[in-house]
C-alpha cells in the first residue's frame, strides 16, 4: 500500500510538471502570435504610408520642379523601406523616410499655391492620419514584444523558451534615440 501511494505521488508530480510545461509552451506561443499580429498591423500602416507617398510627390512636382533632388530622395527611401526587413532594419529605413518627408514638407512652405491646393491638403491630412495609425500600431507591437521578451527571459518560462527555440523579438522604433537625450547647453 505504501509503495502504491509513493508511485501515485510520483505520477502526480510528473503530471504536474508536464502540465506546467505544456501551459508554459502554449503561453509563449500565444505571446509570439501577439508579436506577429502586432507586426502585421505595423506592416499594413507602413504600406498605406508607402502608397500615399507617390501621390504627394506627384502633387508637389507640379508646383516645385526645382525640388527634384528632394523628391527623388523621398521616392528612393520609400522604395528602400518597402523591402521586407527585420523590425530593427525597418525602423532605420522608416526613420530615414520620415526625415526626408519632413524635409519635403518644410520645402513645401515656400509654395503658397501648393499649400492651398485641395489635393495637397487632403494628401497631407491622409499622411497625418497614417502617421498616427503607425504610432498606435507601434505601441501595440512594442507592448506585445515587451510581454513576449519578458516571458522568454523570465524564470522558469525561460527553460521552456530555450528548449523550444523561442527567441527575443526586436522592438520597432521610429524615433531617433539621440532625440530623446537631453541637449547639452553651454553658457
Automatic annotation (TrEMBL):
This is LemA protein. Its main location: membrane. Keywords: Membrane, Transmembrane, Transmembrane helix. It is found in: Membrane. The chain crosses the membrane at residues 6-25. Pfam families: LemA. Belongs to the LemA family. It is a single-pass membrane protein. GO terms for cellular component: membrane. Coiled coil: none annotated.
